Structure prediction request, 109 residues.
Amino acid sequence: MAYNTAVADDIRARIGSHPGLTEREMFGGIAFMINGNMAVGVSGEELMVRVGQDAHDEAVALPGARMFDMSARPMRGWVSVAPEGFAADDHFDAWVDRGVTFAETLPPK
Prediction:
């Protein structure tokens, strides 16, 4: 599956020059990793955001968000966000920040 390269570019711009940032193609899209841990990515037109188990319920309750489900295998702590859920710049920034903030709490890989 192809991914929206404009959204990927927006993520790059938002994360900026984070010292632990790398990119990797996965889940049919592109993932932005912080110290080897996925933070946020793009699959098709949707964001994939790793929020962690503690923030999961709050995150899926937000507009456009649902549990990330890869091949009928729901992944608690991961969220897919439809474009309407991140159309506003402040919402987009908040999703990217959630993913980066969570990834920063994990031990480097």
In short: The helical segments are 5-15, 56-60, 89-104. The longest helix spans residues 89-104.
